[in-house]
Design brief:
With 127 residues, this protein is mainly alpha-helical. It has eight helices and two strands, in the order ββαααααααα. Bound molecules: zinc ion. Zinc ion binds next to loops.
C-alpha cells in the first residue's frame, strides 16, 4: 500500500513515482554474471531459460499456432517442465543436478552444467 502522502487526487508525484515505476518495470533477469568463457549463444539461451521463455515453448505466440504440449504428459510444454519436472528426463537430469525450481536451478547450478544437460537431452538448438 502506498503512503497516503504521495497520493494527491489519485496521482503519484515526484521521485516516489519514479521509484514505483522502476519497481514495476524492472526486468526480472536482473544482474546475471556469466562466465567469461561462455559463448554468446549460450548466454542468450540461459537468459531465455531464466525468464522461462524460449523458442520451443513460445514461438506459437508469433506463429498463431496452438501452444505446444508435452507429447508424453499432455500438459503445456514449459521451460520448467523441460528443465525441472519432466519425469522421463529424470535419470539424465540427476547426472547434472537435482533442483526443485527454475530459481533453484539458476541460483545453484553452474551455467556450463545447465548447457551440458540441455545438449544431452537434445534441446540445445530448439530452445
Ligand atoms: Zn512431459
Amino acid at each position: 500500500m502506498l503512503p497516503s502522502s504521495v497520493l494527491t487526487n489519485g496521482k503519484i508525484y515526484g521521485i516516489v513515482a519514479r521509484e514505483i515505476n522502476y519497481i514495476l518495470f524492472t526486468p526480472t533477469v536482473g544482474i546475471v554474471k556469466h562466465s567469461k568463457n561462455i559463448s554468446r549463444y549460450d548466454s542468450v539461451l540461459l537468459n531465455r531459460l531464466r525468464i522461462g521463455h524460449c523458442r520451443l515453448t513460445d514461438s506459437y505466440l508469433l506463429s498463431g499456432d496452438d501452444s505446444p504440449t508435452c507429447q508424453s504428459c499432455g500438459i503445456p510444454l514449459t521451460v520448467k517442465h523441460i528443465l525441472v519436472e519432466f519425469a522421463n528426463l529424470q535419470d539424465i537430469r540427476e547426472k547434472y543436478f537435482t533442483v526443485s525450481s527454475l530459481a533453484d536451478l539458476f541460483d545453484r547450478v553452474d551455467n556450463h552444467t545447465v548447457i551440458d544437460f540441455i545438449k544431452e537431452i537434445h534441446f540445445y538448438h530448439q530452445l
